[in-house]
């Protein structure tokens, strides 16, 4: 999609870019998430400020805080973009197809979404899913912002405007190099050791750190990655231990690439959740997907 904006008049793209800045917390973050240039995002914000004759943000260093006028525009922009999404769905249904935008965390997207989409294709071939796989916080932002109708996440949901329903359970396990097979450690020993972990914003990282905090512990990983396979390779090379979903590391354990540790005082299990905006009507495509997911 061409995300360029047109100076001198307001367009839907201006509103999309403005919403992205608000949801991502800044121009740079919004540009990264959308895969567009930072100047185009900055220009969209300036165009809107000129168009309405107001300041939309208070700029304090690198922070961009919404003004009262900015918050008002964000609420209206979300409503307009939601209506536009509903219009697109209605028109696609009239043409015999139904588009469904799905955002999914990495774990859900790897272990659960493919099978659910296969069941959806068999039961409702008219539904055309469009999928984004990202960390859990980004999934929440996409659903809140209306970029996705539904999202799949692990663990905690932070935004009160979302409805969350469990559809499966998952277990996190500690893994280390093969030479440590069967080794027993405490949570404190695990936290003090060398750790290679998922990035901040992932459901895995959040659950693990919350469990440590409950015990008065903290960790300082030597390596962070969005890629489970990269972390498994780091563990296999002896660079540190990790905490990852059992469903994503069982194969590596079975192949002898990594070994499970027995953490004597820490058990980490979590619900996997499907989330959607509270109060937003369920489209037939969403209903079909929820049925395929088993939610």
TrEMBL record:
Belongs to the LysR transcriptional regulatory family. It comes from Olsenella profusa. Residues 10-67 form the HTH lysR-type domain. Keywords: DNA-binding, Transcription, Transcription regulation. Gene3D superfamilies: 3.40.190.290, Winged helix-like DNA-binding domain superfamily/Winged helix DNA-binding domain. This is LysR family transcriptional regulator. The lineage of its organism: Bacteria, Bacillati, Actinomycetota, Coriobacteriia, Coriobacteriales. InterPro entries: LysR_HTH_N (IPR000847), LysR_subst-bd (IPR005119), WH-like_DNA-bd_sf (IPR036388), WH_DNA-bd_sf (IPR036390).
